[in-house]
From TrEMBL, chain A:
Protein name (Swiss-Prot/TrEMBL): RING-box protein 2
Family of the protein in this entry: Belongs to the RING-box family.
InterPro entries with a match to the protein in the record: RING-box_E3_Ubiquitin_Ligase, Znf_RING, Znf_RING/FYVE/PHD, Znf_RING_H2
Keyword Disulfide bond (UniProt): no
Molecular functions per Gene Ontology: NEDD8 ligase activity; ubiquitin protein ligase activity; zinc ion binding
Annotated organism of origin: Batillaria attramentaria
Subcellular location: Cytoplasm; Nucleus
UniProtKB/TrEMBL annotation, chain B:
Pfam family, one: Cullin_Nedd8
Signal peptide: none
Keywords from the named record: Acetylation, Isopeptide bond, Nucleus, Phosphoprotein, Ubl conjugation, Ubl conjugation pathway
Protein known as: Cullin-2
Listed GO CC annotations: Cul2-RING ubiquitin ligase complex; nuclear lumen
Main subcellular localisation: nucleus
The organism's taxonomic lineage, starting at the top: Eukaryota, Metazoa, Spiralia, Lophotrochozoa, Mollusca
Pathway where it operates: Protein modification; protein ubiquitination
PANTHER family xrefs: CULLIN
Matching InterPro entries: Cullin, Cullin-like_AB, Cullin_CS, Cullin_homology, Cullin_homology_sf, Cullin_N, Cullin_neddylation_domain, Cullin_repeat-like_dom_sf
SMART domains recorded: CULLIN, Cullin_Nedd8
Amino acid sequence: MADEMDVDRDGDKETTSKPEKMFTLKKWNLVAMWSWDVECDTCAICRVQVMDACLRCQSENKQDDCVVVWGDCNHSFHNCCMSLWVKQNNRCPLCQQEWVVQRIGK
Amino acid sequence: MSLKPRRVDFESVWERLLETIKGVITCGQVARSTWNDRFSDVYKLCTALPEPLGDRLYLETKAFLELHVKSTHFKIMENEQDLLAAYHRHWEEYCRGAGYLNQLYGYLNTTFIKKLKFTDADLNYGGFAVEMTDHMLEIGELALDIWRKHMIEPLRHNLMTLLLHEIAGDRTGQSVNQAVVHGVINSLVDVENYKKKMAMQLYEEMFETPFLKETGDFYRSEASRLKSDCTCSEYMEKVIQRLDMENLRSCKFLHPSSYDKVMQECQQRMVADHLQFLHGECHEMVQQEKRKDLTHMYQLLKPIQGGLGVLIQDIEEHIKHTGLEAVRSLKTDSVPANFVESVLEVHSHFSDLIQKVFGNDQQFVGALDKACAAVINYKLNPKLPCKSPELLAKYCDILLKKSSKGISESEMDDRLTRCITVFKYLDDKDIFQRFYSRMLAKRLIYAQSASMDAEEAMINRLKQACGYEFTNKLHRMFTDMSVSNDHNTSFQNYLQSKRVDLGITFSILVLQAGAWPIGGTTVPSFSLPQELEHTVRTFDGFYGDKFSGRKLTWMHSFCYGELKFNHLKKPYFVTMSSYHMAILLAFNQSEILTVQDMVTATGMPEKELVKQVQALSETKIIMPEEGEVTPDTKVSLNMSYSNKRTKFKISVAMPTRDTPQEVESTHAAVDEDRKMFLQAAIVRIMKARKVLKHNLLIQEVITQSMSRFHPSVSMIKKCIETLIDKQYLERTANSPDEYSYIA
């Protein structure tokens, strides 16, 4: 197995003469996955996973703008779903507490 | 001259008039002044006092014309040896004369006769007998009618025999007076041309029908003669020649309304009557791809109702056979490139054939499509899912990877475009998508793509072929890459502004969960080496400043880094996975470690760690004690390790490409997706229809999912069951095979 990888840069910057460890770290490529920091993966209003855009944004091709909102009760929904919801009823659909925005994802 | 009606002596006026009429009808000399006088004579007669004399004029004229035509008939009959020419000459003269006469009688026509004529509506809907024998005709029409009655009817048999004889002569290559034959034939049309209904009746009855019969007889015997002395390919060539000639002959002699009928008759006798013979030859011609013969065959069979069916089927069979032969001759787990390229070769070979031989006839293109779909979706082992989507995805992977050196950008573009050709035939497009996205993910994460432009172009092609939804996730993966690039730049700036030196070259990819086909599998626990913790924490802080509400999960199995080996004679720079890095970094504490020590240092579960240790020991960098690896096994560094290269990589622990488990899990994931897709489709349909029969529902679900995959009926049934359990649907009470939607 000799898969090619990006090894063009030479990491040999260390010129100090301090006693070297047997292994020194030169380069690191980290892969991370981000997701909304939510308790429930699904938006209770539109039944779509919060990581995906809500249906309205999917159909209008605005996936990138579809973020998540957290209330004081720590429940989370798509921001656009919730902003439609509060027009009718200013309570969290899950716990019926009054809806106060704690933070909006970005 | 006064227009006032007055008394007129019919006899004397008619005498004058008759003289002129004789001149007119034989196209003789008539002075202009005489013409004018006679014209007003007609007027005078029609307006005469006390009684208009129009009726009498009409009858006298009719009697004269009858007499004239009868005498002409005698004259023609005298010319027995050249009856056609004589007839033609007289007809031409009479026809022109009748035209003039009609003008001369203009007043009579407009005032006297129009009143008696029927309107179109009367003719069409009035229910009169169409030809009322006694009704009055315009003079021109009257003249033609008389010609028909007193000339054509008596000559009918003679004319017909002579005409057929002439044309038969033309067929056998004798010279024929074309103008005469054409003129005579057309006289049959012209003489009845004024009629509103059934104007072609005389022509059709008297000439066309016997002519077609004669033509049919002629070509029937011609065909059997040709068939007995020629091979099929010669036969077709001759028939095409005959058809062309006969078409030309029609144009030479006949009225345009007959052209198609003649063609049809000839085709019937020479092609349709011998359909079995021709069809019998198709198979072999197709097998040997005799292009010339096939071109002829197509040309002959195309106009025949149901003539092409056998040929189309033979072509389809042949393509399928050739294709399967090509696919089967590959080794079972063949190289993807061979598969794709041999399928493409078959496809392009036959598209060329169909274009050149069959003029891209839709029916043949359809046959090609059907055959290709059958070849591409052929299962070597009917129990296993079809390999083709996987092979095609792999082929794309090979093309898009850096390793495919030596092909130019335009060639790569070309090949990828051709991949789409194959892709369109795939039944299981969703399986392809799974494999493709997996491979794309690896190419992107390990920076193996030869060209980002090519990657993007390919995704756009797939989007074009299969729609936005199909490539949605691929697009999101692509966006993540460019967003991550921006992160790296701004992170470097962030470090500079904070005057932090991480001591290593660091880069990061931040991927959006859900869009990538990784991460679903459970990641073994792992604690970062101390050397890296600082870096990770710094980045976490940076990311938290930039975004809110997001959490990051480290995908250690996809991380890799470069270590410098200082313990050997010369320094080595080795690229390896994070797991291996952590294991080796632990040796900074001590040259010999037990497996248990390493578990403590790396935080990995023992089972996973043992796997990694085994992989590393294969490279000879570390050496575990002999025997089975247990927690107490001591592992030491190989201090005399050497390698020709000072820069290399250990890629064993990188997820090797497409292990059988991966393939299996891909198929399992696809199955899951399909169930969801089908359930969604069922609910959509039922929501719209409320109540639907079982068979109709199945039918509609299949139609909706065709563009992605071909669902099995049993799978759809299972999905319906699931939905009934979930109370989306219920069986209706009165009918066992009907469902209704529960709102």
